[in-house]
Amino acid sequence: MWKWARRLILYGLALMIVVLIIGYVYQRASVRADLLKYKPVGTLHDVLGRKMHIYTGGQGDSTVVFNAGWGTVNPYVDFYPLYDKIDKQARYAVVDRFGYGYSELTDRTRDIDNIVEETHELLRVSGVRPPYLMVGHSLSALESIRFAQRYPDEVKGIVLIDGGSPEYYSKHAPLTVISLVQRFLIDTGVARTLYHFDGFAESLASESNGQKLLPENLKELERLSMLLKANNGNITDEMRQSQKNAKKVLQGQKPLKVPMTIITAGSFGKAAVVWLESQKALPSWSVSGKQVIVEDAEHYRIKPRKPLPSVMG
Question: How far apart are CA 145 and CA 128, in angstroms?
Fold first, then answer.
């Protein structure tokens, strides 16, 4: 019995190794084809020795700078439902941090000051002039606040879309193992295979309302982005540095001398009381802070029939 069991285990392991090798080859071959279709939608600029991407549009006296949350691979796709609605009211700039969207990877540690310096330089070399209204989702709340701390004369306001507070992130260690597992599934072709099953893309694409608000071309672009860029080294290191980055933000100026609006997803924190309490405290980061709760929203979703609260005025 033990001899047969051991033989079955060995055969199983051998089969698993063969499947993983086939999946890896499948992924590598598909990546080459995907890269031919994955062309920048905005412009690339030299920033500290690497190419960084920015997508701009709109018209107005101020510029809304969109910073995506951690792991949201393609900010151009993620923020489409927002910048598509404000182009008549304001200029906008969608920033791809290193490792995201169409930006290259960098060897620089994902320290918060490195990230903010890179964003500031990208805005400068691309000709996007202040004043800026910084809009940050989730973990990029740290980036938005830190940007205002370092460049106070260039920021006229901050809007955080379910952004976490520095106090919250400083006390909660990140689970980078999840990022590594997701990268493994991509590298071995498992994720690419799952995209062939109906409903997988919609369930995975929570950052764009399950793709309900996206045109068909952006749905495909989201798939390409996930398979090409998700959970790369820069993205993983960004999570690894998050607790340290939050503590650095806590050492900076508070309260900020610019207005801040906190948009809180009412449904996201039903089981996370600590998160909701930290949201209530976030307005204290500004001399003129306010919180707006969107009851039907989750961290990455808002029901399309509900209009977004007006925070642009």
Answer: 19
Gap between the Cα atoms of 109 and 111, Å rounded: 5
Q: Is 27 inside a domain boundary?
A: no
Beta strand ranges found along 117-178 (DSSP E):
132-137, 155-161
174 vs 108: CA distance, rounded Å: 20
- For residue 125, the enclosing domain spans 43-294
For residues 99 and 260, is the Cβ–Cβ distance under 8 A?
Answer: no
pTM (global) more than 0.85: no
**CATH number, domain containing residue 49:** 3.40.50.1820
pLDDT tens string 175-206: 767 777 777 777 777 776 766 666 555 555 44
Separation CA 231–CA 237 (nearest Å): 9
Sign of torsion over alpha carbons 212, 214, 217, 223: negative
Task: Please give the tally of structural domains in the chain.
Answer: 1
For β-strands 50-58 and 256-265, DSSP reports them as unpaired
